């Protein structure tokens, strides 16, 4: 076999395959631009920092290969097998990896912007600090994958499996996670501003201090989720399930929470100023010390909820059910309580001055609304 300067000459597929069959494994920094290695068996090959620009690697077996720092821009890796390979710092810009297998693969700090990773198996892989801007990850499997500090701005993750994935401090601004599976995923301090998570499963997810401004969570499942101290200003959570979720000290100002299940949720110290909670179920919820100033709480089920020391100035509680709830030291000045049920509600120390009620409003026996400065409409 004639020798070639592997680092200067563009190697032919025939040369590389013959050398590989002869036992050669090291092809570090070689020039394989536009090479066709479709269906080749190249397990364990070393292509570190190789030039594979526009290479055809469709159905190629590259398991346990070293492709760290390789140039795979616009490469065809459809259905390729890259399990347990090293692609750290590789450039896969606009590469097509659809239906490829990358189980337990290292893609840390790699560039995968605008790449096609749909239907890819990336379970248990390392994508820490990987650039996935505008990448297509629809229906990919990222179970237990490390995406810490990954960049996924405007990425598409529709119906993607991210169960138990680590997305701590990841950037998911304007990403599409419609119907994604995120059970027990960690997204603490992640940025999901303007992201679409409609119909996503976020059961028991950790979103501590996450940025979720103007994001869409309609019909999403957030049962038992940790959303404490997160930023949900102007987000839309219509018909979401937040049963037993932790939203303590979260910022939900001007957020849409209509028809939401907040059964047993913790909203203590949360900022809900101007939020819309109309017709939501807040039975047994903890809203102690919450700011609900000017909030729309019309027809909300607040039975047996704790609203002690809550700020309800100017809030709309028309038709709300507050049976057996606690409003100790709460401020309801100027609130609308027309048609509300306040039977057996604990109102000791509550400020009701200027609050409105009508003939439909129910109070406990011997309660005198006029003596509390309330105004009948």
In short:
With 377 residues, the chain is mostly loops. 2% of the residues lie in helices and 2% in strands.
Question: Your description of this structure?
Answer:
This protein is low in regular secondary structure and 377 residues long. It has a domain at 231-377: E3 ubiquitin-protein ligase SopA (Pectate Lyase C-like, 3 Solenoid). It is 2% helix and 2% strand. The protein has one helix spanning 13-21, and strands at 341-342, 356-357, 362-363, 375-376. Strands 1-3 form a two-stranded parallel ribbon. 61% of the residues are buried. The mean pLDDT is 97.
Compute the separation of the termini in Å.
99 Å
Instruction: List the secondary-structure elements in sequence, H or E.
Output: HEEEE
The level of helicity is: under 10%
Compute the number of helices. 1
Supply the key terms.
little secondary structure; 2% strand; 377 residues; 1 helix; Pectate Lyase C-like; two-stranded parallel sheet
Outline the secondary-structure elements.
Elements: H1 13-21, E1 341-342, E2 356-357, E3 362-363, E4 375-376
Parallel strand pairs: 1-3, 2-4
């Amino acid at each position: 076999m004639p020798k070639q300067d592997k680092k200067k000459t563009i190697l032919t597929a025939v040369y590389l395959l013959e050398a590989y069959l002869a036992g050669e494994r090291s092809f570090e920094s070689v020039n394989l631009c536009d090479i066709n290695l479709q269906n080749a068996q190249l397990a364990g090959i070393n292509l570190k920092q190789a030039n594979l620009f526009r290479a055809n690697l469709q159905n190629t077996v590259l398991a346990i290969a070293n492709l760290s720092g390789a140039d795979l821009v616009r490469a065809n890796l459809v259905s390729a097998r890259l399990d347990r390979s090293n692609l750290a710092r590789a450039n896969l810009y606009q590469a097509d990896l659809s239906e490829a297998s990358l189980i337990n693969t290292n893609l840390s700090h790699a560039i995968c912007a605008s790449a096609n990773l749909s239907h890819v198996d990336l379970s248990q892989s390392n994508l820490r600090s990987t650039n996935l801007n505008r990448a297509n990850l629809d229906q990919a499997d990222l179970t237990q994958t490390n995406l810490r500090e990954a960049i996924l701005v405007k990425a598409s993750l529709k119906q993607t499996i991210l169960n138990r994935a680590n997305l701590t401090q990841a950037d998911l601004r304007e990403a599409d996670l419609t119907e994604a599976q995120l059970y027990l995923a960690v997204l603490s301090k992640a940025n999901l501003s303007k992201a679409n998570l409609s119909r996503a499963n976020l059961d028991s997810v950790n979103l501590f201090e996450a940025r979720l401004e103007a994001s869409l969570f309609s019909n999403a499942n957030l049962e038992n989720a940790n959303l404490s101290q997160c930023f949900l200003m102007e987000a839309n959570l219509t018909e979401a399930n937040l049963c037993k979720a932790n939203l303590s000290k979260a910022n939900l100002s001007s957020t849409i929470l209509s028809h939401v299940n907040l059964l047993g949720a913790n909203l203590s110290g949360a900022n809900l100023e101007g939020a819309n909670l109309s017709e939501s179920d807040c039975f047994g919820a903890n809203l102690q010390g919450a700011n609900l100033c000017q909030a729309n709480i019309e027809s909300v089920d607040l039975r047996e909820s704790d609203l002690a020391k809550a700020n309800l100035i100017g809030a709309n509680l028309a038709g709300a059910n507050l049976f057996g709830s606690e409003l100790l030291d709460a401020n309801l000045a100027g609130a609308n309580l027309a048609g509300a049920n306040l039977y057996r509600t604990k109102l000791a120390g509550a400020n009701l001055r200027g609050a409105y009620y009508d003939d439909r409003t129910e109070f406990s026996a011997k309660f005198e609304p006029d003596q509390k400065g309330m105004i009948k409409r």
